[in-house]
Amino acid sequence: MDFVKEKITTYLKLIWPFLAFVFVVLILWNTNILFQKFKNEQRLKMELWAKAQKDIIENKNPNSLTFQVLQQTGINPIIRVDSKGKIIDHKNLDEVFNDSISLYRSLEKIRKENKPIIIQYKDPISGRLLIDQKLYYGDSLILKKLQYYPLSLFLIIVLFGLLLYFIFKTNKISEQNKLWAAMAKETAHQIGTPLSSLIGWTTLIKDGQNPKVSVMEMEKDIDRLRIITERFSKIGSDPILELHEVNSIIIQTVNYIQKRSSNLIKIKTSLTKKSSIVPINTQLLSWTLENLIKNGIDSLKGVGEIVVSSKLKNKKLIILIQDNGNGIDPDNFKKIFLPGFTTKKRGWGLGLSLAKRIIRDYHKGKIYVKESLPKKSTILAIELIKED
Description:
- This protein is an alpha+beta fold.
- It is built from 8 helices and 11 strands.
- The chain folds into 2 domains: about 1-140, no CATH class; about 240-385, 2-Layer Sandwich (Heat Shock Protein 90), CATH 3.30.565.
- It has helices spanning about 1-60, 65-70, 100-110, 140-205, 215-235, 245-260, 280-300, 350-360, and strands at about 80, 85-90, 115-120, 130-135, 240-245, 265-270, 275-280, 305-315, 315-325, 365-375, 375-385.
- It has a 5-stranded mixed beta sheet. Strands 2-1-4-3 form a 4-stranded antiparallel beta sheet.
């Protein structure tokens, strides 16, 4: 189920920009259709007004409908000119013009908005052109506003997108800050144990005591410091993946932790008999396993059992770490992998976050909570891609 959710989330992240683009295109397309329809309707009204004007000229006794049409000039700015381009009259202009220069400037503006409507009247007997006028009309205020609607919508979408990006970026920076702070504390914690041991041995040597095991134990502590240094040095860099038997890494890690754990805690293994050779970074994978097993130990409250198993499935090596501890709340299945998140009274919530980074980013695998029953058990899973 967790795989399906992760795939859906990844799919949505990839497809939402395309859907947003399609959404904007559809809105622009519909707006353009509405704009053209409204524009055509206004032209029909202007043509009707021009016909009414012509009817006044042709008929000495026009009907009442003609007068009604002429009185309702609508909301479009209108300028009527003669054959020489001289302005005869105008209506619905945005401003009152005190001089002819400003009026003709307004005419030049309106000329560019729509094609003029021709008003002509010929003498019915001689055929001579008696009236030759042009009716120029501009777009209404509503139509002009409609022109800017797609741009306004686009700007709103862009601003909304920038806001989402800013929120995402802020959350990312906050997450990174938590990670770095936790890493600093984890580094001090990791180094603290072998360093304290070395200080103890050097104190004994200074006091004149020279235990036989001191050199051997000091070498172990130095090796531990070297391992810790190598682990942290690989975080943030591109680690080299080499083909290695994962089962041997599991056994080494389990043995290391078992020696340093209470006798009341048993760590068992159930490993596949088939080849478990996978491209891995041994240092980082052992660190991940160490973190997961230690988390299981913390949930046991001093007594219990942990089983580390491995199996092959669909060209993948799956590692399962199962404990019979308190379990994990389903609401926290994903939260436990976030930097700084912890349900323990002590600790910094870094282990599982680093484990996720190591498995997902470095090994291109998966890590997730496979199953958890409250007060009974938890199973954490790691999936590593096995080469053909």
